What we know:
- The chain has helices at about 20-30, 30-35, 55-70, and strands at about 40-45, 45-50.
- By secondary structure, it is mainly alpha-helical.
- Strands 1-2 form a two-stranded antiparallel ribbon.
- Strand 1 and strand 2 form a beta hairpin.
- The radius of gyration is 15 Å and the shape is elongated.
- The relative contact order is 0.11.
Amino acid sequence: MTPKGLFEPTVMFFGLTNSPATFQAMMNELLRDLINMDKVAAFINDVIVGTKTKEGHDEKVAEIIKRLEENNLYMKLEKCK
Length: 81
């Protein structure tokens, strides 16, 4: 709480201990059902989608992007393959 209202960080603070594990836990929670179906693997900031058809792949990617946006996360398109 600050004099100007509630302070809510938009980025992770430097020096925060255990931040990679915290971020990994968040990604696991966001993508839990997809990970459990063996279609998606998440490691820190890498998300790998494995499907047998292009249509299925596009659907999974769209679902992942939707979940990230709903949680105020984003991707840099130049880093995506």
